[in-house]
Amino acid sequence: MASDPRQETEAQRNDRNLSELIQELRVISLGVQVLFGFLLSLPFTARFTRLDAPQRDLYLTSLVLSAVATTLLLGPVAYHRLVFRRAMKEAIVQYASLMASLGLAAVAGAVLIAVLLVTDVVAGPLPAALITAMVACLLGVVWYAMPFARRRDKRGAGRLFLALRPTLRPPRASSPRPAGGGR
Fold first, then answer.
1. Sign, Cα dihedral of 153, 158, 164, 169
2. Which of 73, 137, 141, 153 has the greatest number of beta carbons closer than 10 A?
């Protein structure tokens, strides 16, 4: 691995890593809590009683995955609070990183199951399967394939991104206009 050009001490690196991780957890925690709250409210709606047994199973699976994701993504906060000021920042960062990775996997599952359930109710099983498969592919590429490609090869994500887009052309340099405003 190439050396980091930041010239920071181990303590500074741990501080930065923890700060970045906390920011990531703040963003994803809000999203999963909104999903979890929405799922908690569904059984109290009139239409919920019309779900068939497989749809209720999907609902329960998504609810449980949302609860697991919430627990995993909030776990680092509790861990940090209990070991705060005990010179354990590197351990906190490692634990929080693991919990964030597991939490993201649970969020991915909860989102996909929720998409499958809602699209099944709205459009039927075939469109639900196709739409969920497309969302799963998008999620897999954006959340996993691109970061892993980037991690393996510093230019990997760039190449993958370019492969997914039409040919990119650099912007044209604007030339000065002739006097008189003509073209």
1. negative
2. 73
